[in-house]
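Quick board copy: two proteins, each given as sequence then tokens.
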Amino acid sequence: MNEREISTAVIRRLPRYYRYLEELIDSGVERISSNELSERMKVTASQIRQDLNNFGGFGQQGYGYNVKYLHSEIAKILGIDKKHNMIIIGAGNLGQAIANYSAFEKRGFVVKGIFDINPKLVGMTVRGIEVMNLEDMPEFVKRENIDIAALTIPKTSAADVAADVAAAGVKAIWNFAHTDLALSDDVVVENVHLSESLMQLSYRLARKEK
């Protein structure tokens, strides 16, 4: 099936499947049925089967899913079966937190460089990486074959910086600036709004309290 026909909801569930399968591998589980996976994930078995059937199914009737095989196939679908070189633009608290989160490397996302325009931050070291001046970014992107840029900068400068990043050759932007970015079709953008997630939590809390 063409990937464009697959819903965003299905794609957003795939990392969750991957995480649960990884936990099963760590626990020594070799195979699992959709019903057993359903109990762990709190997703219906029919939903699991429908989601995975978008990509070929992977299960066998009467056997279920081979956990390692399904884990590796989902890794291929998500593109995390290979390494992705990343840069972080914005060396403030959020940028440093992302750089310090070592689990990203386990998923194949390797932070190669950090950039900022603040002279107080340029030159400091975060997890062994020296913060560079943003003006050095284009050359660095080409030299280090950077795939992804994480933007942890104010929204006032996000559009201009995103355009510069795209012009340098980066094909994917993980945007934490408090604004939605829209670039040309050959640049993939994931807009992340932490405050929206917190407000959703607040909504659920308010409903529970009622």
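And the next:
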Amino acid sequence: MVIQFHKIDFFTRRLIKKIFSVALFSTDNFSVECEVNVSFVKGEKIRELNKQFRGVDKVTDVLSFPLLDIKYPQKLSEFEEEVSPDGVLRLGDIVICKERAKEQAKQFGHSIKREIAFLSLHGLLHLLGFDHIEKEDEKVMNEVSEKILASLNIKRGENV
């Protein structure tokens, strides 16, 4: 997997790489070379993006911008025609508001590392076709998310 990072420090990059690797393996999407862009932005920028693309005029924690119309349980291997000439399947962009992540980490009583781990995974799962609009879909997405984070020993309420 190729991850293009924007305004993200080395240690956070390592964390996100590890999470994405486990997520692709856990969702049976490891056989396709793919690319994701991950950016940290300030509150005002994510508010602007949220308003522009979702019609919601408020700061949010994470936004995903998928390039493919994947619907879980579809797999990346089903998108052979969308693979670019260089052999890479581009999934899209994940934008995280680090300010909001810090607030939420404090609110939930865990570290910023845990919150960034959760938000980056949440964003990737959206790019892989998971959603949480319907209750049943939300349950599936939460179960997959918790399983992946637990496998990395990243738990709620812990200062990891």
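Board note added afterward: The first strand starts at residue 2 and ends at 6.
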